[in-house]
UniProtKB/TrEMBL annotation, chain A:
Function, as annotated: The proteasome is a multicatalytic proteinase complex which is characterized by its ability to cleave peptides with Arg, Phe, Tyr, Leu, and Glu adjacent to the leaving group at neutral or slightly basic pH. The proteasome has an ATP-dependent proteolytic activity. Component of the proteasome, a multicatalytic proteinase complex which is characterized by its ability to cleave peptides with Arg, Phe, Tyr, Leu, and Glu adjacent to the leaving group at neutral or slightly basic pH. The proteasome has an ATP-dependent proteolytic activity.
This protein's name: Proteasome subunit beta
Source organism of this protein record: Liquidambar formosana
InterPro entries: Ntn_hydrolases_N, Pept_T1A_subB, Proteasome_bsu_CS, Proteasome_sua/b, Proteasome_suB-type
Localization: Cytoplasm; Nucleus
PROSITE patterns documented for this protein: PROTEASOME_BETA_1, PROTEASOME_BETA_2
Superkingdom, taxonomy of origin: Eukaryota
Automatic annotation (TrEMBL), chain B:
Cytoplasm keyword on record: yes
Source organism of this protein record: Liquidambar formosana (Formosan gum)
Role of this protein: Non-catalytic component of the proteasome.
Localisation per UniProt entry: Cytoplasm; Nucleus
Keywords assigned by UniProt, alphabetized: Cytoplasm, Nucleus, Proteasome
Name used for this protein in its record: Proteasome subunit beta
GO CC annotation: cytoplasm; nucleus; proteasome core complex, beta-subunit complex
GO biological process, alphabetically ordered: proteolysis involved in protein catabolic process
Domain of life, source organism: Eukaryota
Primary location class: cytoplasm
Similarity section: Belongs to the peptidase T1B family.
InterPro entries documented for this protein: Ntn_hydrolases_N, Proteasome_alpha, Proteasome_beta4, Proteasome_bsu_CS, Proteasome_sua/b, Proteasome_suB-type
Length: 236, 231
């Protein structure tokens, strides 16, 4: 890993956009679906929102391998913890297990995660676990390289006590905006909503997302444009 | 190979300056609530000062995850101290000594906790204010201490204006004067801070608040007057 002695003011960017938002009754987790190796898109439909227990999910960013192995270990520990405890694990416990692995292996791991879920004691909760293994409980969290483009957006748009639909719309809009500007984010927008009633997975392919600045309505072919327009669009 | 752990170690989420001063009834400490991620001001509600046991208050700058780990070590220390149930409790001097040992021993193993710490407290009327300067483990006590940028910007002000037996109001005003300078001149500072007080009675940490800034200098309105093209 030839990254020692780097300028300490420059953390690594991590391909992905991940978001976790609390609302009045639960949480909404969202992510893009692009996994890249260098400039090649290895998987254009990956699922970055991974289940840890029935009621707790984690959004993964950074190294795919590192984030997968951390969630595998945490899922294993949580499973045993649930058996011992005799009831579902709390979001706090799940987040702290993630923190434990992230902190104690900080030299080797390159993954930032957002843990979100619902339990009967605290309701919907979101915990951010960035690089280094800090744990921070937040009303909403953003992560991954695409999140750089969303700080201003959330500063403006975030509101306490949103409804489930408002929260999901916000998450989808945000991931979609990040995809528009971040080369390392792309594909579809996936969301997972967790509340007292259970878990709902949603899937938003590119054509269902709004168009942003300088983006055009997708067409099947130029030929359709030519045939449908009255004047000659082929102009120099 | 032995240097690998140090070489690969750099901080990710960091807090900036902490300032501490002795005053009439105990110690006053100030820190903003920022957690920077490189140059991004990423987290704006990080509590960087925490009470430790009955008699101490710890403020930290540097890597937040290491500060959180330190709080766990201290939690265990205080727990075991309480379990003796012998009427005695660890004072700020003892906690400061413990922290120094932890920091220095980690440094010797090339696996430092990337923090600068300010530890203040009062026990049996004796005020104590110490700092563990960095991940190296250097430590000393003084009437006023600071970490990071605070050393360069706040300490000169404190050297001039601190005096024995400051009242609470004067102490807060002095700290706010220092925090304002840091806000103007430290890139990683944010305008959301807390001031903590520890006395014989106990610890109180203020709710977060912001300071008013001043930009009304006439020179600010027209800085290049007489020197067009300059900055």
């Amino acid at each position: 890993m030839d990254v020692g002695l780097e300028d300490t003011n420059a953390p690594h960017s991590m391909g992905t956009t991940i978001i976790g938002v609390t609302y009045n009754g639960g949480v909404v987790l969202g992510a893009d679906s692009r996994t890249s190796t260098g400039v090649y898109v290895a998987n254009r439909a990956s699922d970055k929102i991974t289940q840890l227990t029935d009621n707790v999910y984690v959004c993964r960013s950074g190294s795919a391998a590192d984030s997968q192995i951390v969630s595998d270990y945490v899922r294993y520990f949580l499973h045993q913890h649930t058996i011992q405890l005799g009831q579902p694990a709390t979001v706090k416990v799940a987040a702290n297990l993630v923190r434990l692995l992230a902190y104690n292996n900080k030299n080797m791991l390159q993954t930032g995660m957002i843990v979100g879920g619902w339990d009967k004691y605290e309701g919907g909760k979101i915990y951010g676990v960035p690089l280094g293994g800090t744990i921070l409980e937040q009303p909403f969290a953003i992560g991954g390289s695409g999140s750089s483009y969303l700080y201003g957006f959330f500063d403006q748009e975030w509101k306490e006590g949103m409804t489930k639909d408002e929260a999901e719309k916000l998450v989808v809009k945000a991931v979609s905006l990040a995809i528009a500007r971040d080369g390392a984010s792309g594909g579809v927008v996936r969301t997972v909503i967790i509340n007292s009633e259970g878990v709902t997975r949603n899937f938003y392919p590119g054509d269902t997302l709004p168009l942003w600045h300088e983006e055009l309505e997708p067409q099947n072919s130029l030929l359709d444009i030519l045939s449908s327009s009255s004047s000659d669009p082929m102009v120099t | 190979m032995i240097f690998v752990e140090l070489l690969c170690r750099y901080p990710y989420v960091t807090g900036t300056s902490v300032i501490g001063i002795k005053y009439k009834d105990g110690i006053l400490m100030a820190a903003d609530m920022g957690g920077s991620y490189g140059s991004t001001l990423r987290y704006k509600s990080v509590e960087r000062m925490k009470p430790i046991g009955k008699h101490s208050l710890l403020g930290a700058s540097g890597e937040i995850s290491d500060f959180q780990e330190l709080l766990r070590y201290l939690d265990e220390l205080i727990l075991y101290d309480n379990m003796w149930d012998d009427g005695n409790s660890l004072g700020p001097k003892e906690v400061h000594s413990y922290l120094t040992r932890v920091m220095y021993n980690r440094r010797n193993k090339f696996n430092p906790l990337w923090n600068s710490l300010v530890l203040g407290g009062v026990k049996k009327g004796q005020k104590y204010l110490g700092t563990v300067v960095s991940m190296i483990g250097v430590h000393f006590e003084d009437n006023h201490v600071a970490t990071g940028f605070g050393n360069h910007l706040a300490r000169p002000i404190l050297r001039d204006e601190w005096h024995e037996n400051l009242s609470f109001e004067d102490g807060v005003k002095l700290l706010e004067k220092c925090m304002l300078v840091l806000l103007y001149r430290d890139r990683s500072a944010i305008n959301k801070l807390q001031i903590a007080k520890i006395t014989e009675e106990g610890t109180t940490i203020s709710p977060p608040y912001s300071l008013k800034t001043f930009w009304g200098f006439s020179a600010f309105k027209n800085p290049t007057l007489g020197a067009e093209g300059s900055w």
